[in-house]
Amino acid sequence: MKPSIPKGTRDFSAEEMLKRDFIFESIKQVFRIYGYEPIETPAMENLTTLLGKYGEEGDKLLFRILNSGNFLSAIKDERLMSPDQTRISSLICEKGLRYDLTVPFARYVVQHRDEIVFPFKRYQIQPVWRADRPQKGRYREFFQCDVDVIGSDSLLNEYELIKIIDDVFQRLKISSVIKINNRKLLSGIAEFIGQPDRITDITVAIDKLDKIGIKAVNDELNIKGISREAIRKLQPVILLTGSTDMKLSELEKTLEGSEPGKEGINELRTLFTLLGKGKVTCDVELDLTLARGLDYYTGAIIEVKSKDVNIGSICGGGRYDNLTGFFGLEGVSGVGISFGADRIYDVLTQLNLFDEISSSGTKVLILNFGEKETVYSLKILDQLRKMMISSELYPDPVKLKKQLSYADARKIPFIIIAGEDEIKTNELILKVMSSGEQKRMSVNDLLEFIESELIRKI
User: Fold this and answer.
1) First to last CA, the chain
2) Is residue 320 within 8 Å of residue 334, measured between CB atoms?
3) Is the pLDDT of residue 345 over 90?
4) Looking at 33-37, 79-83, 99-103, which range is the least confident one?
5) CATH: 1.10.357.10, 3.30.930.10, 3.40.1030.10, 3.40.1260.10. Which one for 14-40+99-350?
6) pTM for the whole structure
7) How many CA atoms lie within 13 A of 352 on its CB side?
8) Which CATH class is domain 364-457?
9) Which residues does residue 176 pair with via DSSP β-bridges, in sequence order?
10) Are residues 130 and 242 in contact, defined by beta-carbon separation less than 8 angstroms?
């Protein structure tokens, strides 16, 4: 039987990891510039922490972990025969793999409330797991790069997060569009169509509009029991066209009787006013069909898509007013966004934007000519590494063809040849692999060359 890995997961080669690290480092640098600090949380959480935070559909996608030991010993046979799978699962599973980083973050804030200073600005880059059907751009194990601020109601936080999105995608050279909506506005729309208690069903359905189209969304709403009259009233609202100001002005008339609707409109006006005064290079638009299916969002919601690759959301998030309340700390509002590193990787790959990134961590390979030459080469190696130049000495004195093939396969850009003749003159030969050019120089000249030319070329 051939070895394999679970569907929806992947191995990553050294070349792929270098590219992924480039993404992570680019994102981290922006997070740090804006004053966010790193934390980490465990891969698994208690199911009591996770369940009920993502909606019914989200709960179904949680990976549950069987209790250790003989997990069936304390359960009576008749319970195991129950058709209620959720009930059985609760008896044999107490923990699960985290579905996202936001709920564990809320748990962290409550658990460590006496150790942190509010507003608390944190970033977190770790894998998450979802028992979803694997498909293009959708994996069961994937990395999220989250940045959140909690303990502040100010819309300046939403503005700053959009600036972070803009900065990250400028660094990655990805043309993107940032879509913004507000859950309070969606609540107002639910009131307007006479279905205030069905906000979850409505948002889950219209959040699929881009994927399945308006007819399928209407069919889903109908199946969930939303009346045809309510569906009819919903259409012209979510399909409004025109500028942001035109849409908001029209909504003010439509939702004049809804307090949450008016509050959502005011928040959107404030946010778009801030964006109008700031410098944002990405396209930013009000999208009334944007719903973000997660139940915990309460205010602004944000989603980002690549303009050049059809791959779904590459970043998203929003405001959550009381997520910490699930864990006993009421009234602490937070807002955050999550970059989907795996989808960003796919976008960069499809657009050939990794071409400028070296596919090898090693920049210089010193060829091995034998024991005597090794002593000389090790001194050069030490000096290179002190200069923070990633360097290797080939470990075995094998044929040069094999050593050069190794360098070529690893795409190492520079070779150092230090044989018996070079040792006598205290010199070396530097070979540029891309051109085949060779330069004879002293060790000191090599170091100067690296400082001026090598780093620039790399």
Assistant:
1) 43
2) yes
3) yes
4) 79-83
5) 3.30.930.10
6) 0.83
7) 0
8) alpha beta
9) 306
10) no
